[in-house]
Amino acid sequence: MTNTATETRSVIVEREIPHPPEKIWRALTQPHLIEEWLMKNDFKPVVGHRFDLRADWGSVDCQVLAVEPNKTLSYTWAAYGLESVVTWTLTPTSTGTHLRMEQSGFRPDQQQAYQGAKYGWQQFFGNLEQVLAQID
Amino acid sequence: MSKAHDVLFTTLADPTRRTIFERLCREGEQTVGALTARAGVSQPAVSKHLGVLKRAGLVRDRHEGRQTHYSAQLGALAPLIDWTSQMAGFWQSRFDHLEDLLKRMDQ
Q1: Dihedral over alpha carbons A61, A87, B95, A94 (to 10 degrees)
Q2: Which of A10, A38, A135 sits opposite B9 (nearest CB)?
Q3: pTM, whole model, 2 decimals?
Q4: How big is the CA angle at A118 (ends A114 and A122), to the nearest 5 degrees?
Q5: How far apart are CA A88 and CA B74, in angstroms?
Q6: ipTM score for this prediction
Q7: What is the rounded average pLDDT for all residues in chain A?
Q8: Taken in order B30, B36, B42, B46, is the CA torsion positive or negative?
Q9: Residues A20-41 as b or e (16 or more Cβ within 10 Å = b)
Q10: Closest Cβ opposite residue A37 in set B74, B78, B94
């Protein structure tokens, strides 16, 4: 592991989904549908639009970066002291859609990433206590 | 587990020390006096805890006149936080929910 403060890392999840891109796009962009699989939200598929994803444990601050209907959707994702970008890519296949989600972000030791992330740190300490309890 | 992990876990295993560190994380830089006022232990005890936190790289001190101000060094926690594995699990479960939703949706 290096300690470069600006080192980026990514999480990539990909699946073959037996539904057409147009249908998946609706699930990714319509607030009442987003709520069913992700979180409560005030999303709009408009570049620059700021929105929140809300759950019991807190909220995620987001801003839409790119919208290309049925193909690409990208938004920032700031929560738990993590500044990142989530990008969805939909590629039609013979049986449906290849759906790819990439979340790329900065390590939490970057100064701007943990400013004002008090809730995230509370969560973190809760997790840390569980880890410590297991060690005992 | 690496030595760096050992030091961090050992340092934060003490509840009083963890409370002090957490307060510095949440509220920013503070003096020993301010920390002692709410720590429920004596000032020498707080100073001792701050010394341990400092040796672990978790706090930094800054002298100003006769006062010493302490601040949290969150970067020291970086080895403990692998957000990628947490988020990978999160997104896998969300993909499951998404697929369930797609089955229920009309074309």
Answers
A1: 160
A2: A135
A3: 0.57
A4: 115
A5: 31
A6: 0.71
A7: 78
A8: negative
A9: bbebbbbbbbeeebbeebbbeb
A10: B94
